[in-house]
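Open question from group meeting: does this chain pack into something compact, or does most of it stay loose? Before anyone orders reagents, we agreed to write out a predicted structure and look at it together. Recording both the input and the output here so the notebook holds the full record.
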Amino acid sequence: MNIYKGLLFAALLSFVLAIILVFTPYSNISGPFLVLFFVLLAFGFRGYEHLKGYSYTVTILASATAAMYYPAAFVSWNGYELKKLITPLIQLIMFGMGTSMSVKDFVGVVKMPKGVMIGVVSHFIIMPLLGYTIANLSGLPTEIAAGIILIGCSPNGMASNVISYLAKANLALSITITAISTMLAPLITPLLMKFLAGALIEIKVEAMMWEIVKMVIIPIAAGLLFNKFLSGKAGWLDKAMPLLSMFGIAFIITIITAGGRDHLISIGFKLLLLVLIHNLFGYTLGYWTARLFKMKERDCRTIAIEVGMQNAGMASGLANAMGKTATVGLAPAVFGPLMNTTGSILASYWHKRPPKDAEPVPAT
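Structure tokens returned:
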């Protein structure tokens, strides 16, 4: 038995023990075994190529589980409220996004104007309207419902670029759509929120615009400058940024989960189902919108992914800036790991079915 099989076997034992303990007088100690289950599962997945992509999502599940069982540990330390770290962590993540980008990413607007236009416009129409519809039909408390609209009004995230690459989609188009939608976010996201969610919660458009600028645009600009002038000169930082970004996202989700624990206990499954519908309909409507405009198969895949995947980190940061981490922030916290899971499954499916119109890879 190799070490990875051993880790998966140990994970199974931890899960069984956790379930048994739930039905005994010692149910209060089932938490550590459930957390251990996810941790062991994450490490075990690393040994299998087809499962490796899910290890990060499982790690987030471990963090969220710990937050559900021991919320006090993730709310404050020595009187310091941990939610104050959300904005700096988002800025760090956006800086990392900037370091992986360059001015060339925006040139795609000229090279692929049709695809970029359809991708960006579809994204900012389909997901906000889906979010608005789901939120109003959900029956959830108004602030939690507003969180569904918020994640729908957010721009694309960098995760969509990774998924597009794995799905054999048009990576250049994906990167350009992400870059353009992110740059438009300070204007479009607050206006959409005011129009669609203004009846549910108070939306201060100018304040939200500034929050997005300082939380997203300034760090990305700093990252772009770093990439242009210092990339390769600080190799340790180039390697560390992806890891720091992953840690930041996991920690943000943990903080939000801990803060919203009571709400999640009462409406967690319902919220998960609604967020899943939002995400899956985004992929589906994005794909068929591109087909409607007679785009190539690989471009249709790209737009499906770009429409269905959101910048959940930015949405979480905005919820925190509004002082509503434990309510408005719940839908983004659920959407993040969920979209990575569904995106990985979709990428695996498409990876095995290369588009017939894909350009041949040049010989090396």
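Observations to bring back to the group:
The CA atoms of residues 98 and 220 lie 4 Å apart.
Confidence is low (pLDDT under 50) at residues 360-364.
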